[in-house]
Amino acid sequence: MTDTTADDGAAERTWCLAEVDIFCDLSEQEMAAIAQAAPMKTYHAGEILYSPTQPSEVLFILKKGRVRVFRVSADGRALTTAIISPGTIFGEMVLLGQHMYGNYAEALDDTVVCVMSQADVCRLLLTDARIAARITAILGRRLSELEQRLSDTVFKTVAQRVATTLVTLSAAQPPGSALRPGGRHPQIALTHEQLAALAGTSRETCTKVLRDLEQHGLLRLARGRITVLARERLQDAAG
After folding, report:
1. Per residue in 127-171, pLDDT tens?
2. pLDDT on residue 21
3. Do 73 and 83 share a structural domain?
4. According to the model, what pLDDT value does residue 144 have?
5. Model pTM?
6. 152 vs 161: CA distance, rounded Å
7. Closest to 48 in 3D by CA, of 105, 113, 114
8. H/E run at residue 8
9. CB of 138 within 8 A of CB of 89?
10. Domain with 173 in it: what CATH number?
11. Which residue among 154, 187, 220 closes a domain?
């Protein structure tokens, strides 16, 4: 007699890892072993996955949603250091050379992650040369993105930072279908306050920039959603 409940649970755990970049060519048996060691957790938009007040050395494998990694200055200003997209990893993992350095991790959307301990990362991931090489590549790209983000903060105007953030986010969004609002144009599900935090500015200033971009035909604004109408022109506005 087949235990369908157990089968469903195993399938759900494997679903969490399926299509994640670093596991793209693993066998079913390898995937099942990793899934067994990486319990799945869900977070709602706005929830904190990781904070300096409750540090833990774990690796998050992001299956669904987006996560913002940010730090907070002494005067309360937030600086976004990374925007994590599905199919990749983040978290505090010293043995990978990956540190949160007092950062917070916040779910931008309803988010699904799988969580692995240091011991299981070492046992299941770092012993596989394929996975280890992909993790190294991911961390290298993230460092490059951080350097670019910090450079933008210093050298770009607020309007350019808002446009840059929109260009980055729109690149990760699939175009809409012809049957839904937005059509072939990418849509970004963010409030003005969330976008302001990503661009390192105030909500009021962000709203002013967005309205100006809308008046010039680059965007269409709706509650909690931004549709990019002219991505090339938006890239020009990003400097």
Report:
1. 888 888 888 888 888 777 777 777 777 788 999 999 998 988 887
2. 79
3. yes
4. 79
5. 0.70
6. 7
7. 105
8. helix 4-17
9. yes
10. 1.10.10.10
11. 154
CATH number at residue 70: 2.60.120.10
Residue type for position 139: L
Which tokens belong to 205?
């200033």
Rounded CA-CA distance 217/19 in Å is: 36
- 183: phi then psi, degrees, rounded to nearest 5: 50, -125
Side chain identity, residue 145:
E
Q: What band does 24 get if pLDDT is binned at 50, 70 and 90?
A: confident
Angle, CA of 214, 215 and 216, to the nearest 5°: 90
Domain around 19: 4-154
> 4-17 and 28-37 helices cross at what angle (nearest 10)?
90
Pairing outcome for strands 78-84 and 40-43: unpaired
164 and 139 co-located in one domain: no
Q: How many domains does the chain have?
A: 2
Which residue, 154, 174, 207, sits at the end of a domain? 154
Average model confidence (pLDDT) for the chain? 81
- Judge contact between 50 and 91, C-beta under 8 A: yes
Q: How are beta strands 225-228 and 219-222 bridged, if at all?
A: antiparallel
3-class secondary-structure state, position 109:
coil
Same domain, 105 and 160: no
Domain identity same for 123 and 148? yes
- Residue 187, strand partner residues: 227
What 3-state DSSP class applies to 59? strand
User: Which has the higher per-residue pLDDT, 184 or 207?
Assistant: 207
Residue-wise pLDDT for 199-238, tens only, equals 888 899 999 999 999 999 999 998 888 999 998 999 999 8
Quick one: average pLDDT of 103-127? 89
149 strand-pairing partners: none
